[in-house]
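As described in the Methods, two query proteins were run sequentially through the folding procedure within a single session, without resetting any intermediate state between them. The first query and its resulting structure tokens are shown here.
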Amino acid sequence: MRAPITVLLLAAAALTPAALAFAPDDTVHIGVEPARIVRYHKEVQHRLGQSGAWAAFQADFGESWQARFDERTGLPHRAWGPGIDLGALRDAQDVESGLRDLIARHPQLFGVSAADLGPARVGYVARTDTWYATFDQQVQGVPVWRGGLTFRIRLGKLILFGVETHPAARGLNVTPQLNAELAIQESVRQGPAPSAFHDAPDARLVLFPEDRDGQLTYRLAWETRTRTGTPPGLWVSLIDAKSGELLHVWNEVRFLTGQVTALHNERTLDGKTAVSPMPLMTVKNGAGASTTTDWSGNFTLEESGSFTVGLTGSYINVRNRQSSNGAGSFTGGSFQWTTASATQAEIDSYVFLHQVRDFWEPLTPEVSMVDDALTSNVNVSGSCNAYYDGNVNFYRAGSGCNNTGSIADVNYHEWGHGFHYTSLEAGTFDGSISEGIGDVTSALLTGDAVIAPYFSTSGAGIREIDTNLRYPDDITGEVHADGLIFAGAIWDLWAELETVYDPETAWLLTAQLFADAIKAGPTIPDSYDELVAADDDNGDLSDGTPNQCSILNAFALHGLGPGGSGGSTLTVAHETLVNQEPTATEYPLSAELTSFAPDCVAAEPEEAVVHYSIDGGATWADAVLSLSGKGDVAGAIPAQPQGSVVDYYVSVTNTDGDTVQNPTGGSINPHSFIVGELVEVYCEDFEDDDGGYTSELISGDDDEGANDWQRGAPQGKAGDPDFAWSGRRVWGNDLGSDNYNGEYQAEKQNRLTSIPITLPTDSDTFYVQFRRWLTVEDGYYDRARVLVDGEIAWENHKTKRDIGDEHHIDDQWALHSMQVADLDGDGAVTLSWEIESDQGLHMGGWNIDDVCVYALKVVDIPVDTGGDDTGGDDTASGSDDDSGDVGQNDDTGDNGEIDIKPACGCAADPAPSSGLALLGALAGLAMSRRRR
């Protein structure tokens, strides 16, 4: 009789390594570990970089330390810089002690006190003189799921750390209302295999962070584990410890639905064969003595009767799960395995697994995977798959698939999962990056971006890693697909290194950096940092690494690393100007140049200019700004008449003639501010309700999602933000929730319209300002509009057919300002926002927040006569004529910040930035237009 689940819980044994499958089985639930998408927005990053905690850390250890911040917690997600001396590091105890002293010195930076951390997990690789240390955050003894601190110490110096702690979790109630036994029962009952027999149960209490609508919340949960044989499963579930709700479930035997594709003949079932030595194989003579073949398959043993061999040896033991194991007998000096003595899958798997072990052993001799005995189970019941669960397992031919044990790529890939698992010195075993690691393990041996040609009998490969999939846009939540992002970055790194080194050196260097980086247990968004840390040669990341530029370029193609969000490491931080008083004599501004990889940019900044316009961009004037050697930019825009809407942008040109702009689109989407004293007429932030706004489809087929205006939390898809300007809710085109992709549809025109906004009678000059995050194709093809009383007041930038690629792409919340008038004379204005699209390229469209209307209060401005007479009453009223009529002003959008009197009180929460904007890209990644 099988033990009941309660008994098994008390006797649960440790689980074996996660079982990771190669290819499709649509009958088995897979799931994926919940992973928070990490995005970096320029203006938020700059604001977080000004925090007191980070300034104090830099004061202690130098301004050369840099960081990318977690925008939900405000803490440095990854930080790197000149090596920090932690004292003598003789053993793991010294490492933990030195790091705890550092944490205690800067608790606000790390988000925890030393008492909030569990014991350190410390690993050391002598070959690279690298310590890996990880601390788990605990709340009253309960670990925060994937929460904690991670450190890299190279050549005796701390060069990189990561903060994934959650200060807001401190003080939460961690008393469960559901015990472990009931949690396991609920995980089975609510899970994908409720009727199967589950054994080896285990459970631990965790605090699980959830990122919902741009904010972190925390749920006390049981992380449960069970195992099933049919269907094959190593089930991990998160069960709410109060309600019993199943929050997440995933199967560490990762089967997926996918296309079965082809193999290359030279390494698979294509009819071509090769004779290869059988290394490390046990040979016995008739007297019972035995020996092992060398790597060339040679052996020396006293001749005594016949010799016997099996597909077993000191490293690989092949087991035939369909019938008896292969065996051979011979006399004389040689024996060749053929299908007369074993199945082809047994022979092939033995050869292929020794090939992959032979490649990695000299590069990573410290990894147990290259030495420990491994069992290969071939001809396993089923078809079209393979998996790793501490051993490697390969399925029979059938259902249009070849025998996976006879495919080199599949053997290499599954071995790569074990290589990942046994390489870990820190971090976590993440399923998505592990699939990428398996694919890279294969590609480095085959030199082919196509993975497993002839997996099916039809001939195509099951995956390819050459396509530039990007994080986070191409994250699907399916581990094999997501792993292609990392695999593609390593593949492109190999190509980058071949432009610097000879092919063999580039190949081995790629493999070495890859192998050393995965020891840190990174997830996909952290993989760039670990490659750079692995490349360090002097215990100091502030001066770059030998191959940082190649790593930077390769990973940027996949949305990873400092160049991932904009294609450049050079940024210009600028605190955007607020509305200006009518009496100001000039409008001072400042900016700061920052480079995340200065050694990768040979040119030096040479000239800084602010470009400004008061006629909606019809004409522009320039003012030269000062530029210091430290990258500080300073200057001013000259005073303008009250009532003016001033558009402006900053440009910096280097000695190579390359120019960067802030904002990135320059005159296409400049910053703006208003000169004058403003009085609030109306403000709506959409937090309590939809503001009475309505949407409609103007033209195009009325199919699902055609009118895609939505109110809610933006999800960060298709170039949209993943947070509102204030509060949590915005209006926008396709906000990306549920199964929506965030893009506006083809050949549609839809419109969002406000309620009528009554205007006061004591003013005749009015302005509309709202927060805007807009991504739309060049106006020659797609049109974004703002309408006032049904008349067009603003349209996105437009070129002509032979250009057509000057898109409006906001990468931050911008302030959009327009002067408006009561065009229909009814004493009110009604605002509308439109998208009109063609068949081609589609983007994220509108996101709008904090819509306000203001009236201008004209004030008298004293006139300086230049004399000493102070008894006169010389004044002048400012003119608002220069600001342009509705429909003429601000024809490119803007990105300023308002400073109203009285202040707008409509925002439910403080705005996420103080008007800070950052500039991306010396060499931005251009968006290409899809054509039919």
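Immediately afterward, the second query was submitted; its sequence and tokens are:
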Amino acid sequence: MTHEPRDLTRWNRAGLAKFDYVDGNAAVFLERLRAALIAKFLRGVPDDAPGRDADFWFHLLRDADHPMPDAGVWDGYTKAMDWTDLARGLAADTENRATRNRRLVRNYNAQSDDYAAEIMRAFARATHVLAGYTDAYMNESYLGTATQWDSLHKLGQMVNYAPVPGASAFADVALLLKPGVGTQTIHAGLGMSAPPAGGGAPLVFETLSDLICHPDLNAVRQRRWNVNRNLFHANTLTEWALSGKKPPAPGDVVALVPGKLTEPSAKGLRINKTRTTPNPDFLKIATETDPDGTWRKGYADMWYAPDQTATGIPVSFGTVTFVTVDEPGRFTPGNLVEVRRPDETVVAVIAAVVENRIGVDLGVIHKDVDALRPLIPYDFKPGYVDTALNVDKIFFNAGGTVSVELMDKTNFVAPSSVETGAVFAAEGIFALRFRAPVSTTYAGALNLEADFVSVTGADYPPKVSAILSNPSATVGFLGKPPKLLTEGSYFVAHYPDGELAALRVRGVRKDKNQYWVHFNSKITHPHEKTTFFGPMTQVIRPRDHDRNMDPILDDEGKIVLLVQSEAAKALIRQGRQVIIEDMRETGNGSVLATVDAVNAVSKFTEVDKGERDQVEVRFSGNSSDFGKFVTGWTVFRFNTAPIGHGETKPGKTLGSGNGEKPRQTLPFDVKGVSFSPDPTTSTGVRPDITVTVDGDPWDHADLTDATAEDTPRYSVRPCEDGTLDIVFRRRLPSGRNNIRVSRYRVGHGAVGNAIGPRAITKPKSKHPHVDGIVQPFAATGGADREETDTIRQNAGASIAANNRAVSLQDFTRLTRRHASVWDARAEQVVRPGRAELVRITVVPANGAPLDTALTKTLKTFVADKALPGTTLEFQGFSQLPMTIDATLRIDTTRYLEQDIREAAEAALINAFALKNRQLGQAFYVAKVLATLEQVSGVETAQATIAVKAGTTTTPDQLFKSRTGALRAVYPRATQVCLLAALSDITLTITGLTQ
């Protein structure tokens, strides 16, 4: 190189990945050597001639725009060169850049028999190699251009920065203790395993801390959790949980029964319509009417599917008295009958004849009927009556209710020859004619002195029992009683006027060929005219009838829980972690909460009978976390423990202490050591190892923590091969093998995030106290060791943040520094009041969801470094997936189309993967073209981009060309533009000649 000032910025333009410190290559270096030797080997040229200057020849040979000397001078120089290989390849005329480059390459590749020329070419080649190494090492000495992990590690140490180690995935689980084991302490290290979602060997997780637990805390319920008090109308479609083989159908008669006395009374209803639901276990049902208007789902039963349908045995009812006779065939309904009572004889209409029971309408119920005498029906002519012979009494049905005797002479019709009204008279024989009375139906009966029929049976239903003696509520039925007829069964009575009434059986009496049922209310219509449906054999209840749908938080923000034992109550203390789980399949999932306050419940209401083991609890955090949880479907799991990816291994000896060495460093040659969450460290994780010095454990401290110097603490430094160096911050006592790692865990990285929710169900091996495990949350937070690009970005940022959060950029940098975070962006939310709200959008490692556990970890990690009074709010990012449609032109004579396709797809996926994108980073079509044209074998490329169809999120802005082609997508600050899948890439490959 020369010392003349040159424009080297073309090698160091903004945006280049590295600096080029070397201005030249082997061909240029060879020309420089030739120029120096030409100046030395000119014969007969004066020493002060321009040709004696090596720079003259170098510029002449290298610079395409350098003017040629006069022809005479040039001829003199060429004749003075007595070294043939030096004269070869000299430009005969002014060159342009292209011809100059071709000449330099031609001269470099030319073979020569001259050993000196070959040595010179070899020296130029060696200089090129050496310069390349020098250039690489120079770039490794600068944080912005270094590429090697070890170089970046050393540069980071200069600015008090330690690379972020790989983080172990973590989650929170609930332990299910075996019943009856009482209070137990489950020590850290309880193992459990599950295969990753993509397949492979099971991953081992272990509990990270000791837990005092009790089986009564496995699944704690809230007070009144199993009663749904929501109202519904029976005549509107309501979902019912089916339980029988055959569901109710339109037209069916049902009994809708309340479960509490304070609810509407039981009603007989008819199904109007039904609707199926996506779940065949449920059916929507609506009745024709709903007399009482509203019912409560928790107290409503619908009884249906009657065992039989029958009318009742006739009994005295209203004005009709039923009696039992031995000759029922002599009586016909509608005819008149003479009724003899102890004190009188009256005429009545026969209301009904059922078996051997005769019902007569006497106007009022008479219990004392001795005998009946049937009267012969007789048809009369309109206007007057001629009787049969020897009839001494004639009765008319006046108004259909009472018989009227008509022997009054005032009604006689006197014939022209007989004053008495006799139509025919002889000794012992007579016939009469008389007028019919007003308001009669001209239907009568004649009394021909027939015999009375004695009454043989009581006219009222028998007593079912000494207590159940109300005859108006007792109905008799013929035959044998149904097998399912028991006390408490339900019937529905269908009265003649169309009314439906629900009846509950209070007692049953069995007689020969008949049985009697005593109901809870009286029958309002004749039994023989009433249809009884029952007993009902199947019952259904409204969907979620046994689930209280009220929010879990009352108006004061507290929750009253049912805890079965005092020992379990004693464990519910402030600060205890609890998993609050929505048990519905399509519910709100689960949240991790912390007990904030606990109070005993001393006052109980009548509703609380049987639920007196109560404790009032308040949870810290935002009440909106529980806003959609309902009492009946929520379970509180207080046996909650944190778990982390990794398996405990036995201890190892690190080495021997040397009291003469400060900051002694010992290698720990184990790969994949677990790093568990610890918000007090600068990276949010700490190694899960126990280091002992002469048997005493030392605490961990960040390598960048200056306060740890000269204290009994150790730090770890990740090595490039995945092992650790353990740095002791105070001189170690001299000894032989007195430094040990007594316990450590192995398992970390993004692979731990592959354990989805509910994957872990039981301990890895049989445990004497733990019966099962509930894992509602997916494992999250697992991340691989920090890569070089991230180190380059974060190392400088750590100086600016200085492990504290004041500006928004500080919050962004600190959050990015966490081992479980790929990217973050902070924004200030303006709101009333003095407290500052900072909302941080987070891209968790590997795109994992921002769950409760990770949010809590990040909040603690950042809050410790923020100003007092700062409120932090974390939210997950949203993806903005893109599609790419590109056409590539390649040289098909040199490259295979499939190889180019695979290489181009891999380049695009890598360039636009989530890990290599940032929040709010624009998606340019120019970036797509640049990525494709860097693929070896791609000559040119054309591409179009688009937001993936069906994407619900929208970008902030789209930039289009004049032709309408999309050129750039500008996402919102909470979005990441990326390629989500290989299927989002469409490539068309053509040859250069096409």
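The longest helix spans residues 115-140. We note this only descriptively and draw no conclusion about the first query from it.
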